[in-house]
Every structure is written in structure tokens, then in C-alpha cells.
Specification:
The complex is a heterodimer of chains A (about 110) and B (about 525).
Chain A: E1 2-8, E2 11-20, H1 25-37, E3 42-46, E4 50-53, H2 55-70, E5 74-78, H3 82-91, E6 98-100, H4 103-110
Parallel strand pairs in A: 2-3, 2-4, 3-5, 5-6
Antiparallel strand pairs in A: 1-2
Chain B: E1 4-8, E2 15-18, E3 23-27, E4 34-35, E5 46-51, E6 54-59, E7 66-68, E8 71-72, E9 76-78, E10 84-87, E11 90-94, H1 117-135, H2 140-155, E12 159-165, E13 171-178, H3 190-198, E14 203-205, H4 218-222, E15 226-235, E16 238-248, H5 256-301, E17 313-320, E18 328-335, E19 338-346, H6 350-367, H7 374-386, E20 395-403, E21 408-414, E22 420-422, E23 428-430, E24 435-436, E25 450-453, E26 459-463, H8 465-468, H9 479-488, H10 495-510, E27 519-526
Parallel strand pairs in B: 3-4, 21-24
Antiparallel strand pairs in B: 1-2, 1-11, 3-5, 5-6, 6-9, 7-8, 7-10, 10-11, 12-13, 12-16, 14-15, 15-16, 17-27, 18-19, 19-20, 20-21, 21-25, 22-23, 22-26, 26-27
Classes of the chains: A alpha/beta (about 110), B alpha+beta (about 525).
Chain lengths: ~110, ~525
């Protein structure tokens, strides 16, 4: 998995490419923690390149949302395909996140 | 013949300075023509110059004064062959005796054969000493420090660094050492590490600014003109690192002889570094394997060993553990004519996940007895699993209770993959039970449950996503459709028969690919009495 990153004003868009499973989720965690350490509080996770996410990946996103809650940050997820969306639905996590259709919407939500 | 000065600084190796110009100012300032690394020397301490075919020395008003052949130098005095100046702790002798290589001289080809017998013996002693020192069992970090210490004792650099190939394949500093007098940071340029560690070539750089091979290497230039000597650490499989030593040129200039010595040290050190490195890797792997084995044992110890005793229950369950991931659990409790059951999947892996699995089982066992309201059980389990959950470890589960007399089932789906009902005729129905959020995420979350009747010939199938996410060698996932397909062919079979059918379908699909996640199935049927 590679992780692309783009900064749009104060918002950081993180775009993992590939499978977010128990092996690769540690890389995503490292990247998100680095942004947190930098004081970046407005984060978009763009799923357009994500084929699959396991429960290990979900846990990383939960920790991201928890940090945002604790530190008054804003997080949005976007561009999830049906299979990824279904993993969020199954775990009952859809309501915990701002999940929007496009990257632009996600940037607007976190601004 | 050009006259020379033999410079003997207090802490670093002696060196020679050629008097190529008409005068030279000696001092510790970088602007001095001959820089001496000695704090007790003034910035511009003494001037040596030629006039009328003779050489003279002039004290420039240095705070600590200057001695000429042991007597204070006052003003200007003749300075010639055999004379010796003393500036602070530094001696400067006039003469052409060659003790150290000249600063401006080109590198000389010096092989062991050209060394005097005394120096050959001294070098062998040093190598032997290093060999013995490195033989004591120590950690990789200690070994690298020891190698640098020996290099400092023998070659007197200002800075030294050992680079090893990192996990990312880049040459990464693994140990550094500097003399107290060193200024600036030691930098090993990419070009130097590519040449030495990458290509396995020892390098003696006399002057970074004029050496063509490395002239463009910015980091060498930025840290000032330095004398650098570097040798690869290599074994039979090739180069895996390097030792680099450097000094400001004015302080210490390395010679071909120094490079030969460093190469000897590097070849002795390489084998030991490789061995200690491999031993540490093996030890780390062993710890990891022990942890995995422990997690596996904990997880397996959690599973029920007996089948339900009640005559009218037909239950089969199996958990196939994955090597590194894990955290599946199943359990059941009999309470008279009622059977409580759970299939759960803890996010995470290793001992941490196994511990949470133990907590889930304990909570389930503690909260079920005497309870009639499933949603209250679920709410209490969630409250406990949310407590201090900074890592956001969550648990998905199907928890239910079946009345074995009536077949009435109450079921809660806590963020889990949907359960299936398989009829006698092979009809497969995904159970429509209200979904709740996974355990451990939202304190106070509501837990709705659903109810249905398990017919006398129906099989209830619970599983974890290890089944549906199982991958073939080509990377495709088994998925819900193929699971339903396997179940359609299992209508009317016993619980064990249904389980076996699903297992073999997944195994065939994976065709030998090791499971990436635990696989758990639990099948429940009522036995007619």
C-alpha cells in the first residue's frame, strides 16, 4: 500500500492506495499520527484507491476520529466504493464518521 | 627541497606541513595558514617566514608566549633545521624528517610490503587486539561503538561513523563518534556511501573540493574541506555497510597507509557485525514467535472443550487460527432448556487481542446467568469494553439465546457479519436482525435484538469475516455469495455436516494459501427428540 498526501489549505487529504489490512494499517496509523504530531487537525481520508479495509484498518480510523473528538479536530471520509462502505455499515460505524461522496465535499466538511 | 614543519598537536596525530609560500601564520583560527587543533594556542600565534634565504619565526604577541628550543621567543629569531617551536601544547619542528604524510602531497601507494618491520609488527598487533576485543559477546550497538573506539585509538580522526543498510535499503548511520575538538556535524554524503558501501570500494579523499570523483558531493563541501577515509563492511555476500572517518584537513590528513589500516579493521569487524546482527534478528524473531505462540495458546484455551449436554441440541463449531492475526472467539452456556451462544471477532492481533478475547468471554460468562433480557447483557458488555479503550480495540459479535423447547431464538448483531438460516431444502436466508454498533466504541450505545423461530430442520450459521475475506492465491475473496452457495448444498445436514461443507469450500478456494485471519464457524440445529 502506498499513501498519497495532499495539503489543501489547512486540510490534509490522505489517500491510501490498495488494501488496508492488518499489515498495511500500521503504515496508515504512522502517517496519521505524524499529522497529529504536526498539529494537523483537519484530515480527509480519500478511499478512491482503497480496494479493501479490514477491522485493523477500521480501528485506525476510529483512533483518528477519537483524536479529532478529543482535540476539536475535523475528520471526513470520502469516495468509498460499495464494498468498503459495506464494511463500515456492518460494524455499525457509518454514523461515527462524516462519510461523503467526493473529495471536494470532504474538504468542504473539514474546513 | 621544500622545507617542512613537523606539527605535533597535543591530542591528535602528528602531521607535516610544507612551507611552499614565503610565509605562514600558525594559530588555532581557521584563517591561520597552518591551523593547529590546540585550545592553548592563540588564534594567530606565531609567524614563520623566509627572508634573505633564511627562515625566521616571529611571536605575534600570543597570550601564552612561544618557546624556541626551550627558551622564550622574543620578537623575531632565526628558525632552521633542527629548531623546535612550542606553542601551548603543540610542537612545531623545522626539518625534513618524514613522520607523517604531507598535507599537499598526492596520495602515495603504500602497501604492507613497503612498511618497515617495526610498523608492520605494530599494525599486526593492532589488528590482533581488535580481533580479540571484538570476540567478546556483545550487542550490535556495543560492537559498533567498540569498532569506532578502536578506529579512533589507531587512526585519530575527528569524527567517525558506521553506516549499515537499513530495513528500507538505504545506508543508515548506525553508530557515530566525535572527538571533543571536532566542529560541525559529521556528514557522509550519498555519493560517498554509494561508492564505498554500495560498490564496496575503499576511498581516500584528500580534498573534497579537488577530488574529481566526489567534487559534487555537497555535504562534504558544506562541512568544510576534510580528509576522509572510508572502507566497506563486506562479507561473502557483498557489502552491507561502511566505516567512514574524517577530519578537517588542517587537523589531520589521512594517508594511503591509514586507508590500508582501516580496511584491515573493517574486514575484521565485518564478520563480527554480520554475526551479531544475525543473532539479534534471530532473537527478535524468537520473541515474536513466542508471543504468537502464547497468544495462540491463550486463544485456544478460551474455547469450550465440551459439547452441550442437552439432548435436543446439535452444535458444531470450529476456529482455525491465523498465524499472526487473531482474536476470534466462540462460546456457549447452557441454562436449563436455554442455550446462550456467542461468536466474536476482536480487532487487533497477538497477545493484546487474545487478552481482549479473554475479557469478552469472561464478560459473557459473568453477565448471562439468570439474565432474561439479551439487550441488557449486550449493554453491560459494551460498557465494560468501552472503559479506558484508548486503542479503540473493538469487538464485533453475534450473541443469542435459543429456547430448546420452543425453538425461539433471540439474537443481537453487534457490528458483525450477518448470520444465515439454512432450511432443510437448501434455502439460505440472511437473518434480518437489527444491527448495533460494535462493542467498545460508543459508551451507552443502544442494543436492539431480533427474534425468530429455529424450525426443527433449520440450521443457524454464525461465522467471522475470516471466512468471507479468505483469499485465493490469486487474491480474490471468498465473499458472501460463495458462502451462501456452500450453504445451499448443505440443507438437511447435521451441524457438523454443514460446518464441514463450509470449511472444505473455503479450503478449496484458498487452495493452500495460509489464512490471513482467524476462521470461525458455529452451526446450531435442534435435534428432534
Amino acid at each position: 500500500m502506498t499513501i498519497h498526501e495532499e495539503r489543501v489549505g489547512d486540510v490534509v487529504v490522505v489517500a491510501p492506495m490498495g488494501r488496508i489490512d492488518s499489515t498495511t494499517s500500521a503504515d496508515l496509523d504512522t502517517r496519521l499520527l505524524a499529522l497529529d504530531a504536526e498539529g494537523r487537525r483537519q484530515v480527509v481520508v480519500d478511499f478512491s484507491g482503497v480496494e479493501y479495509i479490514s477491522s485493523a484498518g477500521l480501528r485506525i480510523l476510529l483512533t483518528l476520529a477519537k483524536r479529532a473528538r478529543d482535540k476539536a479536530g475535523r475528520v471526513a471520509l470520502c469516495s468509498q466504493d460499495q464494498s468498503v462502505r459495506q464494511v463500515f455499515d456492518l460494524a455499525g460505524f457509518t454514523a461515527l464518521f462524516s462519510i461523503v461522496a467526493t473529495r471536494d465535499d470532504a474538504i468542504a466538511v473539514t474546513r | 627541497m621544500t622545507p617542512r614543519l613537523q606539527v605535533g598537536p597535543p591530542d591528535t596525530a602528528p602531521f607535516e606541513f610544507e612551507l611552499t609560500g614565503a610565509e605562514v601564520v600558525i594559530g588555532r583560527a581557521q584563517t591561520a595558514g597552518l591551523v593547529v587543533p590546540d585550545a592553548s594556542v592563540s588564534r594567530h600565534h606565531v609567524r614563520v617566514f623566509t627572508r634573505d634565504g633564511r627562515w625566521w619565526a616571529e611571536d605575534l604577541g600570543a597570550r601564552n608566549g612561544t618557546l624556541l628550543n626551550g627558551a622564550p621567543l622574543q620578537g623575531v629569531a632565526p628558525f632552521g633545521d633542527g629548531d623546535c617551536l612550542r606553542l601551548g601544547g603543540t610542537t612545531i619542528a623545522f626539518g625534513s624528517e618524514t613522520a607523517a604524510p604531507a598535507v599537499a602531497a598526492a596520495p602515495m601507494e603504500l602497501s604492507t610490503d613497503n612498511l618497515s618491520p617495526d610498523r608492520q609488527a605494530a599494525r599486526l598487533r593492532t589488528i590482533n587486539e581488535i580481533h580479540r576485543a571484538l570476540a567478546t559477546p556483545i550487542s550490535l550497538g556495543e560492537l559498533l561503538d567498540l569498532i569506532l573506539n578502536r578506529c579512533f585509538a589507531v587512526l585519530h580522526p575527528e569524527e567517525g561513523m558506521i553506516l549499515l543498510r537499513g530495513a528500507d535499503g538505504e545506508w543508515t548511520p548506525a553508530a557515530t563518534k566525535r572527538s571533543p575538538k571536532a566542529t560541525g556535524d559529521m556528514m557522509v554524503s550519498r555519493r560517498l556511501s554509494e561508492e564505498v558501501a554500495g560498490l564496496g570500494r575503499p576511498v581516500l579523499v584528500l580534498d573534497a573540493a579537488i577530488d574529481e570523483r566526489l567534487a559534487g558531493a555537497e555535504s562534504i563541501q558544506m562541512s568544510g574541506v576534510r580528509s576522509v577515509v572510508a572502507a566497506p563492511l563486506a562479507d561473502a555476500e557483498g557489502s552491507f555497510g561502511m566505516i567512514a572517518l574524517s577530519s578537517r584537513l588542517a587537523v589531520r590528513k589521512f594517508s594511503q597507509e591509514d586507508l590500508d589500516m582501516l580496511e584491515s579493521i573493517a574486514s575484521v569487524a565485518a564478520l563480527r557485525v554480520r554475526n551479531v546482527g544475525l543473532a539479534e534478528e534471530a532473537a527478535a524473531r524468537k520473541v515474536l514467535e513466542r508471543e504468537l505462540a502464547l497468544a495462540h495458546d491463550m486463544q485456544m484455551a478460551m474455547l469450550p472443550r465440551r459439547r452441550p449436554a442437552h439432548a435436543s441440541i446439535d452444535l458444531a463449531a470450529h476456529l482455525t487460527p491465523a498465524r499472526s492475526v487473531g482474536g476470534d472467539l466462540y462460546d456457549f452456556i447452557e441454562e436449563g432448556a436455554r442455550l446462550w451462544f456467542i461468536v466474536a471477532d476482536v480487532s487487533g492481533k497477538g497477545v493484546a487481542a487474545a487478552l481482549v478475547t479473554a475479557v469478552v468471554k469472561t464478560l459473557f460468562r459473568a453477565m448471562v446467568p439468570g439474565e432474561t433480557d439479551l439487550s441488557r447483557v449486550l449493554g453491560r458488555m459494551n460498557a465494560e469494553l468501552c472503559r479506558d479503550n484508548d486503542q479503540m480495540t473493538f469487538v464485533t459479535a453475534i450473541v443469542g439465546c435459543v429456547d430448546l423447547d420452543t425453538g425461539r431464538v433471540v439474537l443481537g448483531d453487534i457490528g458483525h457479519t450477518p448470520a444465515f438460516l439454512v432450511g432443510d431444502d437448501g434455502t439460505v436466508t440472511a437473518l434480518d436482525v437489527p444491527k448495533s454498533i460494535a462493542f467498545g466504541v460508543m459508551p451507552g450505545a443502544p442494543f436492539a435484538t431480533g427474534a425468530f423461530t429455529l424450525g426443527p430442520t433449520d440450521a443457524l450459521v454464525l461465522y467471522t469475516d475470516g471466512i468471507t475475506d479468505a483469499r485465493s492465491v490469486r487474491g480474490e475473496m471468498f465473499g458472501t455469495d460463495q458462502l451462501e452457495g456452500a450453504l445451499r448444498g448443505a440443507g438437511g445436514r447435521s451441524a457438523a455436516g454443514v460446518l464441514e461443507r463450509v470449511q472444505s469450500a473455503v479450503e478449496t478456494f484458498a487452495s493452500g494459501a495460509p489464512p490471513e485471519d482467524d476462521l470461525t464457524i458455529l452451526v446450531l440445529r435442534r435435534r428432534s427428540r
